[in-house]
Fold each of these.
Amino acid sequence: MTILVTGATDGLGRYVTTELAKAGHRVLAHGRNPERLRALRDELGVDTVQADLAELRQVDRLADEVLERVDRLAVLVNNAGVGAGADPRRREVSADGIELRFAVNHLAGYHLAQRLAPKLVASAPARVVNVASIGQEPIDFSDPLLERSYSGMRAYRQSKLAQIMAAIDLAEELRGTGVTVNALHPATLMPTTMVREGFGAPLSTLEEGGRATLRLILDEGLATTTGRYFDSNRPDPADPHPQAGDPDARRRLRELSDRLIAEALGRAPR
């Protein structure tokens, strides 16, 4: 089966891509850096797609390319992300002028999943897996992009909760189609670029996080489980931050996301 993994050239994404390729799956590996993508292709023999997820037009182009290149898509793994930043006091914005963590960690995967949803439905049974985090903070809808009061860690944690909220919404939207949508915290502080930049020493291994992520991608026991959040390798779903269970908060996030994407792409909101 064909599996699209974003952020496949480093850390958890590279580990998951390697294990999937070894198991004989066709992996479409996404990355931002062309040289790293070439190295990954040469090492593993995987297909690659390049895009900078900090620009929504490139996310849109990525979706177009995937739709053109694959007849069937069994799994979308939204893994690419950025951490709190080397200087968590400095607010960064994307190419579209959107707070960077919200743009890359949430909006890119949200838009990609929406664009690829018809292909996933046509390929059902299929799955969407959002790689989120146990670090979650509620979105302040009076200042969702933290323009008045910024903290890199808050921005990161808000974006990760947004990923979980989006997974719950998409699961409801696709219920009955044979496409499941789930989110997970893979492991705490794995040895990734993000962790080294923001936290220093790791506490978990890539293997631990990789096993948890591969379980959501491949485990037949989860074939009908949808709209849930998982914590590492614990077998049963966990409870995310309570805001994820608030339908009104999810509606406000969806409306905000659709508006920001529409503005970036020069289209009407969906």
Amino acid sequence: MFGKKKSPASPLVLSAEKFDTLIGPQCEMHGRILAKDSLRLDGTVVGHIEAHSDLPITVVIGASGVVQGDVRAHRIIVAGKVTGNIHALERIELHTSALVQGDIKYGSLAVEHGARVLGLLLQIDSQIPDHSEDEVRAVIRKAKA
């Protein structure tokens, strides 16, 4: 509690989870990725990343990772940059170096100090029917008025 110094950033440890697909920092991909196993991205993807919704697949975007497109998976960990919407069916973790420019739909959310989100945070609740983005934005406009 006192006297202990916190680490400035909690690194994403590769050995913490099994990643069947690795996209290295020198790799740039254009197009849609459909993941059938867990994926770690340290390079650049221009396009959407999707995982089967019925499988517990994790997508990790490392500190050097960049995604220009939407990301949809069971669990998503972001330490890099995402320009697009994120839909984490179970959980999303935003690390200190994360920058998300888009809306985030999530089951549960963990955010480290310093992470940045430029968009809406929308919690998924299985008891509440899913609403379109237009309906959500209308509610926000009404609340601001």
